[in-house]
Design a protein that fits this description.
75 residues; 1 helix; mainly beta; 6 strands; 12% helix; six-stranded mixed β-sheet
Length: 75
């Protein structure tokens, strides 16, 4: 498992995944879970899966306890 992009600001890490799916789910957040388990001492923000859109029609939806999916065309 891996994370596509990892941003850091003010000692907080922001993991990002970019996916082409319109229906992201828990499996798309596996890299975030692996990162948190590998680096438990780091402060990690909720993970964000960025997609072209979401089947639900929403711009943001929760896909796991700590992670979200965001449509890149969200306003």
């Amino acid at each position: 498992a891996e994370v596509d992009v990892l941003l850091e600001r003010d000692a907080t890490f922001y993991p990002l995944e970019i996916k082409l799916t319109l229906s992201p789910g828990r499996r798309d957040a596996q890299g975030f879970s692996a990162f948190r388990k590998t680096y438990p001492h780091l402060k990690t923000a909720p993970g964000l899966v960025i997609t072209p859109g979401l089947i639900s029609g929403k711009s943001l939806e929760q896909i796991s306890d700590n992670d979200y999916a965001l449509a890149w065309n969200a306003e």
